[in-house]
Specification:
Elements: H1 2-13, H2 16-36, H3 45-49, H4 54-86, H5 91-96, H6 99-122, H7 129-157, H8 163-183, E1 190-191, E2 202-205, E3 210-215, H9 217-226, E4 230-233, E5 240-241, E6 246-251, H10 255-263, E7 265-268, H11 277-291, H12 299-313, H13 319-325, E8 332-334, H14 339-353, H15 358-371, H16 377-397, H17 401-410, H18 412-417
Parallel strand pairs: 1-8, 4-8
Antiparallel strand pairs: 2-6, 3-5, 3-7, 4-6
Amino acid sequence: MFSTVLRKIHRLSRRLWVRVTLISGLAFVALGAAKLFGPMIPEGLSEVIGADALNRLLDIISTSMLAVTTFSLTVMVSVHQSASSRWTPRAHRMLLADTTTQTVLATFIGAYIYSLAAIILLSTPYYGEKEIVTLYISTLLVLVLIVFVILRWIMHLQAFGSLVDTTVRIERRAQQAFEARMERPCLGGHALDPGDIPGTARPLRADRTAYVQAIYEDSLQAAAEEHDGRVYLVAPVGRFVHEGETIAHLLGGGEEMEKAVRAAIHMGELRTDEQDPRFALIMLSEVGSKALSAGINDPGTAIDVIGRIGRVIGSYRDEMAHGREKAIHDRLWVVPLDPRDLMQDGFGAMARDGASQVEVLISMLKTLEALSRHPDTSIARAARNMAHEALSRGRAALEFEPDRARLARAAPEMAARH
Protein backbone atom coordinates (compact mmCIF):
# COMPACT_ATOMS: atom_id res chain seq x y z
CA MET A 1 0.00 0.00 0.00
CA PHE A 2 2.90 2.37 0.73
CA SER A 3 4.21 2.01 -2.83
CA THR A 4 0.72 2.78 -4.13
CA VAL A 5 0.69 6.05 -2.18
CA LEU A 6 4.16 6.92 -3.48
CA ARG A 7 3.09 6.28 -7.07
CA LYS A 8 0.02 8.48 -6.65
CA ILE A 9 2.15 11.24 -5.16
CA HIS A 10 4.62 10.92 -8.03
CA ARG A 11 1.79 11.08 -10.56
CA LEU A 12 0.45 14.21 -8.83
CA SER A 13 3.88 15.84 -8.70
CA ARG A 14 4.09 15.82 -12.51
CA ARG A 15 1.36 18.47 -12.69
CA LEU A 16 2.31 22.12 -13.03
CA TRP A 17 -0.17 23.48 -10.50
CA VAL A 18 1.27 21.24 -7.78
CA ARG A 19 4.76 22.69 -8.17
CA VAL A 20 3.37 26.22 -8.37
CA THR A 21 1.45 25.64 -5.14
CA LEU A 22 4.46 24.17 -3.33
CA ILE A 23 6.92 26.90 -4.34
CA SER A 24 4.34 29.62 -3.65
CA GLY A 25 3.93 28.08 -0.20
CA LEU A 26 7.69 28.35 0.28
CA ALA A 27 7.39 32.08 -0.44
CA PHE A 28 5.09 32.49 2.56
CA VAL A 29 7.41 30.33 4.63
CA ALA A 30 10.25 32.72 3.80
CA LEU A 31 8.12 35.69 4.84
CA GLY A 32 7.25 34.00 8.11
CA ALA A 33 10.89 33.08 8.73
CA ALA A 34 11.85 36.73 8.30
CA LYS A 35 9.51 37.61 11.15
CA LEU A 36 10.68 34.67 13.26
CA PHE A 37 14.41 35.40 13.01
CA GLY A 38 14.05 39.17 13.22
CA PRO A 39 14.78 39.44 16.97
CA MET A 40 18.18 37.78 16.38
CA ILE A 41 19.41 40.69 14.21
CA PRO A 42 21.76 43.22 15.92
CA GLU A 43 20.72 46.83 16.20
CA GLY A 44 21.88 49.17 13.42
CA LEU A 45 22.52 46.43 10.86
CA SER A 46 19.85 47.86 8.58
CA GLU A 47 21.96 50.92 7.73
CA VAL A 48 25.12 48.85 7.31
CA ILE A 49 23.77 46.46 4.66
CA GLY A 50 21.53 48.95 2.89
CA ALA A 51 18.20 47.35 3.75
CA ASP A 52 16.47 50.58 2.76
CA ALA A 53 16.73 49.34 -0.85
CA LEU A 54 14.30 46.52 -0.08
CA ASN A 55 11.26 48.22 -1.61
CA ARG A 56 13.09 48.82 -4.88
CA LEU A 57 14.21 45.19 -5.04
CA LEU A 58 10.68 43.95 -4.42
CA ASP A 59 9.32 46.27 -7.11
CA ILE A 60 11.88 44.93 -9.59
CA ILE A 61 10.97 41.33 -8.78
CA SER A 62 7.22 41.89 -9.02
CA THR A 63 7.38 43.68 -12.39
CA SER A 64 10.03 41.47 -14.01
CA MET A 65 8.63 38.12 -12.86
CA LEU A 66 5.24 38.86 -14.38
CA ALA A 67 6.87 39.59 -17.73
CA VAL A 68 9.25 36.63 -17.54
CA THR A 69 6.42 34.26 -16.63
CA THR A 70 4.31 35.44 -19.56
CA PHE A 71 7.27 35.09 -21.93
CA SER A 72 8.11 31.60 -20.61
CA LEU A 73 4.52 30.43 -21.03
CA THR A 74 4.53 31.71 -24.61
CA VAL A 75 7.76 29.84 -25.34
CA MET A 76 6.43 26.67 -23.72
CA VAL A 77 3.21 26.74 -25.75
CA SER A 78 5.14 27.38 -28.98
CA VAL A 79 7.55 24.52 -28.34
CA HIS A 80 4.73 22.12 -27.49
CA GLN A 81 2.76 23.02 -30.59
CA SER A 82 5.85 22.68 -32.77
CA ALA A 83 6.73 19.26 -31.34
CA SER A 84 3.14 18.07 -31.72
CA SER A 85 2.88 19.13 -35.36
CA ARG A 86 6.39 18.12 -36.45
CA TRP A 87 6.99 14.87 -34.55
CA THR A 88 3.93 13.32 -32.91
CA PRO A 89 0.93 14.81 -31.05
CA ARG A 90 1.59 12.36 -28.21
CA ALA A 91 4.90 14.14 -27.51
CA HIS A 92 2.95 17.17 -26.31
CA ARG A 93 1.89 15.45 -23.08
CA MET A 94 5.40 14.19 -22.43
CA LEU A 95 6.77 17.72 -22.76
CA LEU A 96 4.03 18.98 -20.45
CA ALA A 97 5.42 16.70 -17.74
CA ASP A 98 8.94 18.13 -18.15
CA THR A 99 10.07 18.81 -14.59
CA THR A 100 12.58 21.51 -15.54
CA THR A 101 9.93 23.60 -17.29
CA GLN A 102 7.49 23.13 -14.43
CA THR A 103 10.07 24.08 -11.80
CA VAL A 104 11.14 27.18 -13.74
CA LEU A 105 7.57 28.44 -14.17
CA ALA A 106 6.71 27.63 -10.56
CA THR A 107 9.80 29.54 -9.37
CA PHE A 108 8.88 32.62 -11.40
CA ILE A 109 5.31 32.59 -10.12
CA GLY A 110 6.47 31.91 -6.55
CA ALA A 111 8.91 34.84 -6.69
CA TYR A 112 6.12 37.08 -8.01
CA ILE A 113 3.81 36.06 -5.15
CA TYR A 114 6.66 36.52 -2.66
CA SER A 115 7.32 40.09 -3.82
CA LEU A 116 3.64 41.05 -3.78
CA ALA A 117 3.10 39.61 -0.30
CA ALA A 118 6.25 41.30 1.01
CA ILE A 119 5.20 44.69 -0.42
CA ILE A 120 1.80 44.36 1.26
CA LEU A 121 3.31 43.34 4.62
CA LEU A 122 5.82 46.19 4.54
CA SER A 123 2.93 48.64 4.45
CA THR A 124 1.71 47.29 7.80
CA PRO A 125 3.26 47.35 11.28
CA TYR A 126 3.97 43.60 10.96
CA TYR A 127 7.69 44.12 10.23
CA GLY A 128 9.97 46.21 12.43
CA GLU A 129 13.49 47.36 11.65
CA LYS A 130 15.07 44.02 12.54
CA GLU A 131 12.52 42.03 10.56
CA ILE A 132 13.19 44.22 7.53
CA VAL A 133 16.83 43.13 7.67
CA THR A 134 15.91 39.45 7.58
CA LEU A 135 13.41 40.13 4.81
CA TYR A 136 16.14 41.94 2.86
CA ILE A 137 18.44 38.91 3.21
CA SER A 138 15.72 36.50 2.09
CA THR A 139 14.97 38.78 -0.89
CA LEU A 140 18.63 38.65 -1.91
CA LEU A 141 18.43 34.84 -1.75
CA VAL A 142 15.32 34.93 -3.93
CA LEU A 143 17.20 37.07 -6.46
CA VAL A 144 20.07 34.58 -6.54
CA LEU A 145 17.56 31.76 -7.09
CA ILE A 146 15.91 33.70 -9.92
CA VAL A 147 19.23 34.27 -11.69
CA PHE A 148 20.11 30.57 -11.35
CA VAL A 149 16.72 29.48 -12.68
CA ILE A 150 16.90 31.89 -15.64
CA LEU A 151 20.32 30.52 -16.60
CA ARG A 152 19.00 26.98 -16.30
CA TRP A 153 15.97 27.90 -18.39
CA ILE A 154 18.13 29.40 -21.15
CA MET A 155 20.30 26.28 -21.31
CA HIS A 156 17.20 24.08 -21.30
CA LEU A 157 15.62 25.97 -24.20
CA GLN A 158 18.63 25.32 -26.44
CA ALA A 159 17.36 21.81 -27.21
CA PHE A 160 13.89 21.69 -25.66
CA GLY A 161 11.34 20.31 -28.13
CA SER A 162 13.88 19.57 -30.86
CA LEU A 163 13.85 16.27 -32.73
CA VAL A 164 16.82 14.86 -30.82
CA ASP A 165 15.45 16.03 -27.48
CA THR A 166 12.00 14.61 -28.18
CA THR A 167 13.21 11.20 -29.39
CA VAL A 168 15.66 10.92 -26.48
CA ARG A 169 12.84 11.69 -24.02
CA ILE A 170 10.53 9.11 -25.59
CA GLU A 171 13.27 6.47 -25.71
CA ARG A 172 14.16 7.15 -22.08
CA ARG A 173 10.53 6.81 -21.01
CA ALA A 174 10.21 3.60 -23.03
CA GLN A 175 13.37 2.19 -21.48
CA GLN A 176 12.18 3.09 -17.99
CA ALA A 177 8.80 1.48 -18.61
CA PHE A 178 10.44 -1.70 -19.94
CA GLU A 179 12.93 -1.89 -17.07
CA ALA A 180 10.16 -1.42 -14.51
CA ARG A 181 8.14 -4.15 -16.23
CA MET A 182 11.09 -6.53 -16.36
CA GLU A 183 11.91 -5.92 -12.70
CA ARG A 184 8.32 -6.88 -11.88
CA PRO A 185 7.17 -9.23 -14.65
CA CYS A 186 3.39 -9.16 -14.96
CA LEU A 187 3.36 -6.42 -12.29
CA GLY A 188 4.79 -8.87 -9.80
CA GLY A 189 1.97 -11.36 -10.28
CA HIS A 190 1.51 -14.54 -12.29
CA ALA A 191 1.44 -14.55 -16.09
CA LEU A 192 -2.19 -14.95 -17.08
CA ASP A 193 -3.13 -17.65 -19.54
CA PRO A 194 -6.83 -17.77 -20.57
CA GLY A 195 -7.02 -21.28 -19.15
CA ASP A 196 -5.99 -19.99 -15.70
CA ILE A 197 -9.32 -18.24 -15.11
CA PRO A 198 -11.62 -20.51 -13.05
CA GLY A 199 -15.11 -21.04 -14.32
CA THR A 200 -16.52 -19.86 -10.98
CA ALA A 201 -14.83 -16.46 -11.22
CA ARG A 202 -17.20 -13.51 -11.68
CA PRO A 203 -16.46 -10.71 -14.17
CA LEU A 204 -15.71 -7.15 -13.09
CA ARG A 205 -16.98 -4.79 -15.79
CA ALA A 206 -15.81 -1.28 -16.65
CA ASP A 207 -18.11 1.47 -15.42
CA ARG A 208 -16.91 3.90 -18.10
CA THR A 209 -15.39 3.98 -21.59
CA ALA A 210 -11.73 4.91 -21.19
CA TYR A 211 -8.12 3.74 -21.23
CA VAL A 212 -6.64 1.66 -18.44
CA GLN A 213 -3.95 4.15 -17.38
CA ALA A 214 -2.43 2.49 -14.33
CA ILE A 215 -2.83 -0.56 -12.14
CA TYR A 216 -1.87 -0.40 -8.47
CA GLU A 217 -0.82 -4.01 -8.03
CA ASP A 218 0.05 -3.67 -4.34
CA SER A 219 -3.48 -2.51 -3.57
CA LEU A 220 -4.91 -5.39 -5.60
CA GLN A 221 -2.82 -7.89 -3.65
CA ALA A 222 -3.83 -6.31 -0.34
CA ALA A 223 -7.52 -6.42 -1.29
CA ALA A 224 -7.27 -10.05 -2.39
CA GLU A 225 -5.52 -11.02 0.86
CA GLU A 226 -8.03 -9.15 2.99
CA HIS A 227 -11.02 -10.85 1.33
CA ASP A 228 -9.28 -14.17 0.64
CA GLY A 229 -9.77 -13.82 -3.10
CA ARG A 230 -7.91 -13.80 -6.39
CA VAL A 231 -7.74 -11.22 -9.17
CA TYR A 232 -7.36 -12.09 -12.87
CA LEU A 233 -6.71 -8.91 -14.90
CA VAL A 234 -7.73 -9.38 -18.53
CA ALA A 235 -7.46 -5.67 -19.51
CA PRO A 236 -3.77 -4.68 -19.33
CA VAL A 237 -2.49 -1.14 -18.96
CA GLY A 238 -3.03 0.72 -22.25
CA ARG A 239 -6.18 -1.18 -23.23
CA PHE A 240 -9.14 0.92 -24.38
CA VAL A 241 -12.22 -0.58 -22.78
CA HIS A 242 -15.87 0.21 -23.30
CA GLU A 243 -18.45 0.56 -20.58
CA GLY A 244 -19.63 -2.89 -19.58
CA GLU A 245 -16.56 -4.65 -20.97
CA THR A 246 -14.86 -7.13 -18.64
CA ILE A 247 -11.60 -5.78 -17.20
CA ALA A 248 -10.99 -8.48 -14.58
CA HIS A 249 -12.31 -11.71 -13.12
CA LEU A 250 -12.61 -12.07 -9.36
CA LEU A 251 -12.62 -15.24 -7.34
CA GLY A 252 -13.81 -15.00 -3.76
CA GLY A 253 -14.55 -11.88 -1.76
CA GLY A 254 -17.68 -9.84 -2.22
CA GLU A 255 -18.86 -6.34 -2.98
CA GLU A 256 -16.16 -4.74 -0.83
CA MET A 257 -13.46 -6.55 -2.78
CA GLU A 258 -14.98 -5.40 -6.06
CA LYS A 259 -14.87 -1.78 -4.86
CA ALA A 260 -11.24 -2.15 -3.79
CA VAL A 261 -10.22 -3.72 -7.10
CA ARG A 262 -12.05 -1.07 -9.09
CA ALA A 263 -10.30 1.67 -7.07
CA ALA A 264 -6.90 0.09 -7.81
CA ILE A 265 -7.48 0.22 -11.59
CA HIS A 266 -7.01 3.83 -12.69
CA MET A 267 -8.81 4.77 -15.90
CA GLY A 268 -8.77 7.96 -17.93
CA GLU A 269 -9.49 9.53 -21.30
CA LEU A 270 -5.90 9.46 -22.58
CA ARG A 271 -3.35 6.67 -22.85
CA THR A 272 -0.22 7.16 -20.73
CA ASP A 273 3.22 5.57 -20.66
CA GLU A 274 3.43 5.20 -16.86
CA GLN A 275 3.10 1.39 -16.95
CA ASP A 276 2.67 0.95 -20.68
CA PRO A 277 5.91 0.13 -22.58
CA ARG A 278 3.92 -0.41 -25.77
CA PHE A 279 2.67 3.19 -25.81
CA ALA A 280 6.21 4.57 -25.69
CA LEU A 281 7.15 2.28 -28.60
CA ILE A 282 4.15 3.57 -30.55
CA MET A 283 5.25 7.17 -29.97
CA LEU A 284 8.74 6.38 -31.25
CA SER A 285 7.25 4.64 -34.26
CA GLU A 286 5.02 7.65 -34.98
CA VAL A 287 8.06 9.94 -35.06
CA GLY A 288 9.79 7.66 -37.58
CA SER A 289 6.64 7.14 -39.63
CA LYS A 290 5.94 10.87 -39.84
CA ALA A 291 9.52 11.48 -40.98
CA LEU A 292 8.82 9.16 -43.93
CA SER A 293 5.80 11.16 -45.08
CA ALA A 294 6.03 12.97 -48.41
CA GLY A 295 5.81 16.36 -46.73
CA ILE A 296 8.84 15.77 -44.50
CA ASN A 297 10.82 13.11 -46.39
CA ASP A 298 13.48 12.55 -43.73
CA PRO A 299 14.61 8.90 -43.86
CA GLY A 300 17.57 9.71 -41.58
CA THR A 301 15.19 10.31 -38.68
CA ALA A 302 13.41 7.03 -39.37
CA ILE A 303 16.74 5.18 -39.37
CA ASP A 304 17.65 6.81 -36.03
CA VAL A 305 14.30 5.84 -34.54
CA ILE A 306 14.70 2.24 -35.75
CA GLY A 307 17.93 1.97 -33.79
CA ARG A 308 16.30 3.40 -30.68
CA ILE A 309 13.40 0.96 -30.93
CA GLY A 310 15.87 -1.90 -31.28
CA ARG A 311 17.61 -0.83 -28.06
CA VAL A 312 14.33 -0.65 -26.18
CA ILE A 313 12.97 -4.02 -27.34
CA GLY A 314 16.37 -5.60 -26.65
CA SER A 315 15.68 -5.31 -22.91
CA TYR A 316 12.65 -7.63 -23.16
CA ARG A 317 12.50 -11.08 -21.61
CA ASP A 318 9.74 -13.66 -21.48
CA GLU A 319 7.20 -12.84 -18.77
CA MET A 320 5.41 -16.18 -19.05
CA ALA A 321 8.43 -18.02 -17.63
CA HIS A 322 10.02 -15.21 -15.63
CA GLY A 323 6.73 -14.14 -14.10
CA ARG A 324 6.07 -17.58 -12.64
CA GLU A 325 9.52 -17.67 -11.08
CA LYS A 326 9.27 -14.26 -9.37
CA ALA A 327 5.60 -13.86 -8.43
CA ILE A 328 5.56 -11.32 -5.60
CA HIS A 329 1.79 -10.98 -5.64
CA ASP A 330 0.57 -14.56 -5.45
CA ARG A 331 -3.11 -13.59 -5.70
CA LEU A 332 -2.75 -11.57 -8.90
CA TRP A 333 -2.72 -12.75 -12.54
CA VAL A 334 -1.81 -10.29 -15.33
CA VAL A 335 -1.72 -10.58 -19.13
CA PRO A 336 1.97 -10.64 -20.22
CA LEU A 337 3.43 -8.56 -23.02
CA ASP A 338 3.22 -10.22 -26.42
CA PRO A 339 6.47 -9.99 -28.48
CA ARG A 340 4.43 -9.87 -31.69
CA ASP A 341 2.64 -6.75 -30.43
CA LEU A 342 5.95 -5.14 -29.54
CA MET A 343 7.28 -5.73 -33.05
CA GLN A 344 4.17 -4.31 -34.68
CA ASP A 345 4.13 -1.33 -32.34
CA GLY A 346 7.76 -0.54 -33.04
CA PHE A 347 8.34 -1.48 -36.69
CA GLY A 348 4.95 -2.09 -38.34
CA ALA A 349 4.14 1.47 -39.39
CA MET A 350 7.65 2.23 -40.64
CA ALA A 351 7.80 -1.05 -42.56
CA ARG A 352 4.64 0.08 -44.36
CA ASP A 353 5.54 3.76 -44.87
CA GLY A 354 9.19 3.08 -45.70
CA ALA A 355 8.60 0.16 -48.03
CA SER A 356 9.74 2.18 -51.05
CA GLN A 357 12.90 3.52 -49.37
CA VAL A 358 15.60 0.91 -49.49
CA GLU A 359 17.91 2.55 -46.94
CA VAL A 360 15.14 2.49 -44.33
CA LEU A 361 14.34 -1.16 -45.02
CA ILE A 362 18.01 -2.16 -44.85
CA SER A 363 18.41 -0.43 -41.48
CA MET A 364 15.27 -2.13 -40.20
CA LEU A 365 16.40 -5.56 -41.42
CA LYS A 366 19.78 -5.14 -39.71
CA THR A 367 18.08 -4.21 -36.44
CA LEU A 368 15.65 -7.11 -36.73
CA GLU A 369 18.50 -9.46 -37.55
CA ALA A 370 20.20 -8.42 -34.31
CA LEU A 371 16.95 -8.97 -32.40
CA SER A 372 16.56 -12.39 -34.05
CA ARG A 373 19.65 -13.42 -32.06
CA HIS A 374 18.02 -12.31 -28.81
CA PRO A 375 18.43 -14.90 -26.02
CA ASP A 376 14.67 -14.93 -25.55
CA THR A 377 13.25 -17.25 -28.20
CA SER A 378 9.85 -15.53 -28.34
CA ILE A 379 11.30 -12.11 -29.18
CA ALA A 380 13.75 -13.71 -31.64
CA ARG A 381 10.91 -15.47 -33.44
CA ALA A 382 8.82 -12.27 -33.53
CA ALA A 383 11.81 -10.37 -34.97
CA ARG A 384 12.23 -12.92 -37.76
CA ASN A 385 8.54 -12.71 -38.62
CA MET A 386 8.70 -8.90 -38.67
CA ALA A 387 11.78 -9.06 -40.93
CA HIS A 388 9.91 -11.30 -43.38
CA GLU A 389 7.03 -8.82 -43.41
CA ALA A 390 9.35 -5.85 -44.04
CA LEU A 391 11.14 -7.77 -46.79
CA SER A 392 7.84 -8.67 -48.46
CA ARG A 393 6.70 -5.05 -48.38
CA GLY A 394 10.00 -3.93 -49.86
CA ARG A 395 9.97 -6.46 -52.69
CA ALA A 396 6.42 -5.39 -53.55
CA ALA A 397 7.12 -1.63 -53.43
CA LEU A 398 10.61 -1.34 -54.94
CA GLU A 399 10.57 -1.06 -58.72
CA PHE A 400 14.24 -0.24 -59.30
CA GLU A 401 16.08 -3.55 -59.70
CA PRO A 402 19.39 -2.43 -58.09
CA ASP A 403 17.40 -1.42 -54.99
CA ARG A 404 15.77 -4.83 -54.91
CA ALA A 405 19.22 -6.40 -55.17
CA ARG A 406 20.54 -4.26 -52.28
CA LEU A 407 17.57 -5.34 -50.18
CA ALA A 408 18.22 -9.00 -51.00
CA ARG A 409 21.89 -8.65 -50.02
CA ALA A 410 20.88 -7.07 -46.70
CA ALA A 411 18.89 -10.20 -45.78
CA PRO A 412 20.27 -13.08 -47.86
CA GLU A 413 18.79 -15.86 -45.71
CA MET A 414 15.32 -14.34 -45.74
CA ALA A 415 15.51 -13.55 -49.43
CA ALA A 416 16.46 -17.18 -50.15
CA ARG A 417 13.41 -18.41 -48.25
CA HIS A 418 11.17 -15.96 -50.09
